[in-house]
Structures are given as C-alpha cells and as structure tokens.
Amino acid sequence: MHRTVHDIEVDAPAGVVYGLIADPVQWPLLFPPNVHVDRLAHDGTHEHLRMWATANGQVKTWTSRRVLDAGNRRIEFRQDAAAPPLSEMTGTWEVEPLGGDRCRLTLLHDFRVSGDSPEDIAWVERATDANSRAELDSLARIAGGWALMDQLVMTFEDTVRVEAPPERVYAFLERADRWPVLLPHVARLDLTEDPALPGVQLLAMDTLTADGSSHTTESVRVCFPEEGRIVYKQTRPPALMSAHTGAWTVAGDAHGSTVTSRHGVVLRPDAVTRVLGPTADLAAARRYVRDALGRNSTVTMTHAKRDAEAAARAAAARAAEPAVRAA
To answer: Where are the transmembrane segments (predicted)?
Structure first.
C-alpha cells in the first residue's frame, strides 16, 4: 500500500470548505481535473458516485463510495471499481478549523497497483500529486472568496422545442465534428475519441463571438445516448472563467422533443476588467457570460431543430411515396 498526503490552509470557515467537498456533483466547477460526477445513490451519510476525471492527460472513469461525517468534517472514500493501473484506492478528506475564518484541508490517498510495477506506481504518484495540488489550490482560491461565491458561481439553461424524434436531435449534438459547416459561430473543431472509453470525446474548438473575435477552448465530453444526455467540461475555458461545465439533454414525448442546454460557470474576478474594460464589475461579467453562452447554445439548438425537423419531413415524404404510387 502506497500513501500520499497533501494539505493546504484556506482563508474560509471550516464549514464552508466542508460543504464544498461534501457536494461532489459540483466538483467539476471546483476542481480542474474533474470532468463529471453522477451521484448514483445518497442517504445523507453514504453515497455512491460515478466519476470522470483527467489524470496525466488521460481521461479516467471509476465508481467510488463515500462516508460523510459532517460533525467531524471528515469524508472517507473508496473506489469500488478503480481505473487501471490502480487495483485499489482509498482516502480521506479532513477539514481542521484554525480559528477565525481559516482552516486546513488535508487530502490522503492510499493505493495499490496491479503487479506493484514501479512504472505504474510512479504514474499513479504523478497523477495523484498533480491532481491533488490542482484540486486543493483551486478550492482554496474559490473558497477564499466565499463572501462573493454567490456572485462568482452561476448556472442557467435555455430550452428549444423540436417537432422531431429525440434521436435526430441527439445525433446532431453528438456529431460535433460536423459543426464547423453547420454552425456559424464554430470556426474550427477537432474531435477525437478513445476506443477504450466509449462515449468520451475530446474537443478543441475555435468559437466566434458577437464582436467577431475568436477564442479557443478545449473540452472533454461524455455522451450518454441511452439517456439523451451529453455532459462536458472545458479543460481550457475562456479567460473570463476559471471553470465552465455544461450539459445537453434531449427528452422526447408524443409530439416531438425538448432540447435543453445547461451551463455552470465560475468567474475569475481578477480577469473582469482586463477582459471587459476598466469600468466592468462582476454584475457586468455575469450578464456578458449569460448572453454569450446562452446565445451560442441557442444557435446550436436552433440548428439542431432545423436539421432534425428537415430529416423528419424527408422521412415522412419517403414513407408516403408507396401510398401515392399505389393510388
């Protein structure tokens, strides 16, 4: 069994920090390596999670069980389906009050690797060290602005109604490699998929903004075709954001489909005036981000609507041809 220990002092109350680590669904907004977390079960003390994260530049997925002890501000976790080369991974989050609005956050990992290969041990140690430092540094930065957290973190969504089956809408969203020729705000998009991780896509995209400028983003997407859902995390977000996550969901009913785009954002307060001008404040940044992301998402959904409805009309016309010839 191998162990790593990482800790950091945080300029925030212990209760605030514990609350952040106790809500893993929000981790993709807090922790750079985390792409997506699905909470499979939760009773207030025990929870079962499915997680996707990057490690040494690779996307990994696993399931984990956690035991939450709010009274002692302590969370224990164990991966019950560890990602190779790991054969076992357990650990603990601990939050220790230091007096005033300060605390110490400690993250412990204990792990084994299959065959105890030195190369694999070194790989896990590098990944654990890099990810733990990135997670603790990010959490300390965000929690350190806890008085402004309601202004820095924002979530919103937009919805479009489609008169076509959900499968056609979902196909448009999943086949992002076609977007440069279908969407006016996408100038370039490179998409790669790992055969070892079905449904995981890596995207590098150049997006045009309303003023004609372009910015480059990189994202990891996880596709769930059976659920009509695609979730994503920008691993290289625009300068105004420290984190940006999102989800596309397509729900069908007897009359067609409803497609929804949801965004989660953490703003960078130190970038507001640099990006938006010397008189801009957080309120202006929130309006700018809401407008820019919402506009691009709505454009994408509108084009998905047109594409799906045109395909549905063409299919209906083909189905009617035998009846016309017979008449």
So the answer is: none
